[in-house]
Amino acid sequence: MHLKERLFTIDFVFACLLIFLTYCNITVFYNLYVYLQQIGVPADWRGFLIGSSALATIAFFLFASPYLTVKNAVPCATVGALLLLGCGAAYLYATGVVALFAVRLVNGVAVYLLSAACMTLMVSRIPTEHSGQAFSLYSIAQLLPYSLVPAVCDALAPHLPSAAYGYRDMSLLLLPGLAMIWVIGRRQKAAPEAAWGTKSLSLGEMYKNACKPAIALVLGLNAIYIVAFSSLFFMAKGLFQSRGYQDVGLYFSIQMCCMIVIRLAGNRHFDRVRKVSLIRFSFLVSAASFFLAAHSSSLAGLYASSLVMGVGTGVISPALYGLMFNISEPRFKTVNSNLMMLSLQIGNFLGPVLGAAAMHGLGYTGMLEADAVWCLGGVALCYVLTSRKVDAGGLAAQA
């Protein structure tokens, strides 16, 4: 059977596991704002330091994405894993703003190398008719750490001298990741060169393609959603403490469990439904979740908002990534999928920066209300996406 006719290959499974380990080393910093406060980092620097890792990732996605191919993805993933291992240990010694900024930048480069390599390997191995299913499973691996890591770290925190030890210990998960990368590399060498995918593109070709209205809007929608979600994620610890609660891990566990149930239950259906309608629905549900969290003073209300958020996150990523995959020309499918990762990192950078600014200016309630309004802006853009001026490729049929 030809490589692209099958979805569940060792390469696909290992790519999902590697992206899971990568995001474990992103979500472990859910308490970074509080940790920076504890070690005396000035308030004006905290949001920027959290987001600076994503800033480095963004820069590499902008300038290196067209040159990343299936052929060089394995070496890139290896370097990324080694860098993350080094950064994990570095947090034990970096306590000043400059040192932390340097570690966060290297951390961001490592995240790019691993995540972009995994996406490149995955896209080269999925058939178009299974794109929704593939991205549903891949995004479960990508988002599952947002549920597991805060809960596990909250449970282990009393037994660690500081959060920095948790950052180091989490990076050690990349050791088995290196073994998986080695296996993928061995299988790649044994595969015919025709299975390695298309050649690299130029920066000009990538930017020209990204400026197409439909492509740009899908990228924008992805960034908008991640800005809202990451602003909550990185501010949630402080939100809970401000309302007299300590254990924020269960909030994200509820949200992610709901998300996983929806994605597993609707696995194959993501290839049969109208994706733009799903995206619009997700933004509406998420806006309702933020509004509910803003005006909930009890744990029950906060957990209810988490359940609603799980519905939104459960639907939106497979719909967005599947839509991008389907509307992209064959030679741009890989680079456009990596541009989706770029827009995600833009959201991860802007989310904590804007979230911290909104929290300082408006309080936690105002921040959550701003997130709700932000999501309603995403709903409006969905209508722009399917308008006659933008929809030259048949998107309206999916709306």
Describe the structure.
This protein is mainly alpha-helical. It has 14 helices and no strands. Helix 1 runs antiparallel to helix 5 (97-123). It is globular, with a radius of gyration of 20 Å. The two termini are 34 Å apart.
- Portion of residues within helices: over 70%
Summarize the main sheet: none
What's the CATH topology name? Growth Hormone, Chain: A
Helix-strand category:
mainly alpha
**Would you list the SSEs in sequence order as H and E?**
HHHHHHHHHHHHHH
**Distance separating the two termini:** 34 Å
Q: At CATH's second level, what is the architecture?
A: Up-down Bundle
Strand proportion, as a percent range, falls in under 5%
Number of extended strands: 0
CATH class categorisation: Mainly Alpha
Tally of separate helices: 14
As for the number of domains, it is 1
Segments where pLDDT lies below 50 for 5+ residues?
A: none
Rg over CA atoms: 20 Å
Report the CATH superfamily: MFS general substrate transporter like domains
Query: What's the shape?
Result: globular
Average per-residue pLDDT, rounded, comes to 83
